[in-house]
Amino acid sequence: MQSALAQKSLQDLIELSNRLGETGEFAILGEGNTSAKMDADRFYVKVSGTQLLGATEESFVPVDRKKILAMLDQDSLSDEEIAAGLLDAVADSSGRKPSVETMFHAYLLSLPQVNFVAHTHPTMVNMILCSTRAQELVRGRLFPDEIVCCGPEPVFIHYEDPGHILARKIMEGCEEYMKKWKVAPKSILMQNHGLVALGKTAAQVQATTQMWHKTAHILVGATLLGGANYLSEDNVRRISTRLDEKEREKAIFGDG
Ligand SMILES: [Zn+2]
């Protein structure tokens, strides 16, 4: 049986997925995957091969978080072991197969204040992430709302094989980020791949995705116009911690 809270998470997840799929700028066809916490032990994640646009209850399968996290404790797993492990973690009898990216969703949903995760392949963001200058270009922040929605910096992940290896790299990158900033990241950029947005509410995750799309537009334009004028590290720290920005964050995202 689903609790009322779990049912609400699933409805929010369905709406978020459709919103992210509707413009075609963040994901087309079977691209991207989304997830939401269901309760302390389980979460919903997109079924492998389904589309964000047109997502329904059938597009998500409940999985056991501890079973997936146990897979991440392993240094390496064969493709067969991964496929078997994912199916074994499914918490219903539907036989539906969770996305191969379920492993990083499990980890991110175990971070403090994280209830929703959306992974997309936004065209503008990938314009940067597929360039030879990806890491250098995303090193700095450009404007205050970017910091409010996307965090003081993204976690940057060099290209990795999607699945188990990528999930372990994301885990390492987030641990490092949390040592520095003392909070969970809001965004992860994966070289030659795409974006992951994570947060407390579906609205927050949608805003982070939209704001990265906008930031990428501005970054490409500024680079073409002679170079991005990045904010100083002091300004970035100040904006990410100051009270009125926290109030603004609350106004944008709600208390959630
Ligand atoms: Zn992807």
**Which strand order do you get reading across the main beta sheet?**
3-2-1-4-7-6-5
CATH topology: L-fuculose-1-phosphate Aldolase
| Uncertain residue ranges | none
> How many structural domains in the coordinates?
1
Strand content: 5-15%
End-to-end separation: 24 Å
- Tell me the radius of gyration: 18 Å
Secondary-structure element string: HEEEHHHEHHHEHEEHHH
**Cofactors and ligands:** zinc ion
Please provide the count of β strands. Answer: 7
Q: Judging by the overall fold, what is the CATH architecture?
A: 3-Layer(aba) Sandwich
Helix content: 40-55%
Mean model confidence by pLDDT: 93
Look at the structure and give the CATH class. Alpha Beta
Continuous helix count: 11
CATH superfamily: Class II aldolase/adducin N-terminal domain
Q: Please identify the structural class as seen in this structure.
A: alpha+beta
Q: Describe the largest sheet.
A: 7 strands, mixed
**What characteristic shape results from the CA principal axes?**
globular
